[in-house]
Amino acid sequence: MARWHGEDAYVASGGGLSAIVVPERGGKIVSLSDESGYEWLVGPPDPLPPPASPGDVFRRAEMCGWDECLPTINACALDDATLYGDHGNAWSLPWRVIGDAMHVYMEELGLSLTRSISATPAGLRLTYDLSAERVLPILWAAHPQVRAPRGSRIELPPAVREVIDVMDEPARRAKWDATLASVDSVPEGGCRKVYVSSSTRSGAASLVTPSSGTLTFRWDPESLPYLGLWFDKRVRDAEARIAIEPTNGYYDDAARAAKAGTVAIVSPDAPLHWWLEVAHVY
Question: What is this structure's pTM?
Answer without folding.
Answer: 0.97
